[in-house]
Design brief:
The chain has 12 helices and 10 strands. It is α+β, with helices and mostly antiparallel strands.
Length: about 425
């Protein structure tokens, strides 16, 4: 088994790392200052132009069509690049690789008409607009999509939408011009054929941003989270994404890559947390010696390294499977990393916070945000329980009974 990156992937990793070190990281403190004031970073558009000029654009889209801007890297080739971007929460935006826009691009690539691509996909590929995906609802357990209460009723050549969505990543962004909404179009159909997805422009009458949401006190400055209400929102039938009743298909097409991209970036964030623990523990003293000299701290750092390397291998294999077998063939692997990586991120962030002390819970470090992000990932895009259930269902039963097992000693008759 060859665990080395391909020459192509390594070349892109080196190129991205140089751009990150030379152009992105030096702007981080300025970005933090603007974020603290609730302002957009004024240098982002210029930074995006530089990234695109360097060819570092739309890196996470292997299915780009001819003429569409991007690198066409495979998922496995993209994985180490996503790690680099994951070290800063805002870095993916510089390369047009931020959620939820990339998963929405993938959904549009796979499920939209040529007319829809021209109107909705191409502006996203050019970073001329932002988008969101409306699935989660406040009054139901949305991890089971059959619980979704939002209704989309056919009326002539339109659909009329009524419902409420919340914790919609990107919905509160001032540049968000449309969202893909999942709702019920036929409540009497089979459980996986009741729903449809439709493109809804944010300016449509009846769409209301109820409030901007935070998670565990943290603000998402890259893709601000929103709660939305839909009051008799009328959208033309031509905005339907895929056929009526194919809402599950659209959701699953975008959710697989979304989950793996989150995990890729989380690995990069954990690398940063380990580095922060190393430096902080070497500079901080307690009871006459540096914190790093204590066995407990050494064990925390070592355990973090073990867990991170395990998670990286699992995530890379998932990316490899996604390239080989597509979204459906990689489903088990996606569930595995979706459970393993956020839990790892939580544990490493918790250790880092303990090493840093009070500073770890302040805005001076990204540690408390990393802890909150790990906790959010254990709920978002399917909670742990759903993925564990899926993993169990795909576990095969051995052909032997306990009494007849060749691995156990024989019992006297």
């Amino acid at each position: 088994m060859n665990f080395d990156l391909s020459e192509r992937s390594e070349a892109w990793r080196v190129k991205l790392q140089a751009f990150f070190d030379g152009e992105v990281l030096p702007r981080h403190r300025a970005w933090l200052d603007h974020a603290a004031k609730g302002e957009a970073a004024p240098f982002m558009e210029d930074l995006q132009r530089k990234a695109r000029a360097a060819g570092l654009w739309n890196l996470g889209l292997p299915e780009l069509a001819e003429g569409e801007p991007g690198t066409r890297l495979s998922n496995l080739e993209y994985a180490p690049l996503a790690e680099i971007m994951g070290r800063l929460f805002w870095a993916p935006e510089a390369f047009n690789c931020q959620a939820p826009d990339v998963p929405n691009m993938i959904a549009l690539q796979n499920c939209s008409t040529p007319e829809q691509k021209a109107r909705w996909l191409h502006p996203l590929l050019e970073a001329k607009t932002r988008s969101a995906f409306g699935m989660t609802e406040p009054d139901v357990a949305s991890s089971d999509a059959t619980n979704i209460a939002t209704r989309m009723v056919r009326d002539g050549d339109d659909y009329v939408i009524n419902g409420r969505k919340w914790f919609i990543t990107g919905a509160a962004h001032p540049k968000c011009s449309f969202l893909i909404v999942m709702g019920v179009t036929d409540s009497g159909a089979d459980r996986t054929s009741r729903h449809s997805c439709i493109i809804v422009p944010m300016a449509t009458p009846g769409v209301r941003l109820v409030r901007r949401l935070r998670w565990m006190g943290c603000e998402d400055h890259v893709a601000p989270i929103g709660e939305l209400s839909f009051d008799n929102v009328r959208v033309p039938r031509e905005n339907l994404l895929g056929a009526e009743g194919e809402g599950f298909k659209v959701a699953q097409v975008r959710l697989g890559p979304a989950r793996i991209h989150h995990c890729m970036r989380s690995i990069g964030l954990c690398e940063l947390l380990i580095e922060l623990m190393m430096v902080r523990s070497s500079e901080r003293t307690a009871f006459g010696r540096t914190v790093m000299q204590y066995d407990t701290v050494q064990r925390w750092i070592a355990e973090s390294r073990v867990e991170l390397e395990q998670a990286r291998l699992l995530t890379y294999r998932c990316a490899w499977m996604l390239d080989r077998a597509g979204h459906h063939g990689a489903w088990r692997d996606v569930s595995l990393i979706k459970v393993a990586v956020p839990a790892m991120l939580q544990r490493i962030a918790d250790r880092a916070m303990q090493v840093f002390g009070a500073m770890g819970g302040s805005d001076d470090t990204p540690i408390h945000q990393a802890l909150a992000w790990g906790r959010l990932l254990r709920i978002g895009d399917g909670p742990d329980e759903v993925h564990l259930r899926q993993i169990f269902r795909m576990e095969s039963m051995p052909s032997w009974s306990i009494a007849g097992s060749p691995y156990l000693s024989a019992h006297p008759s």
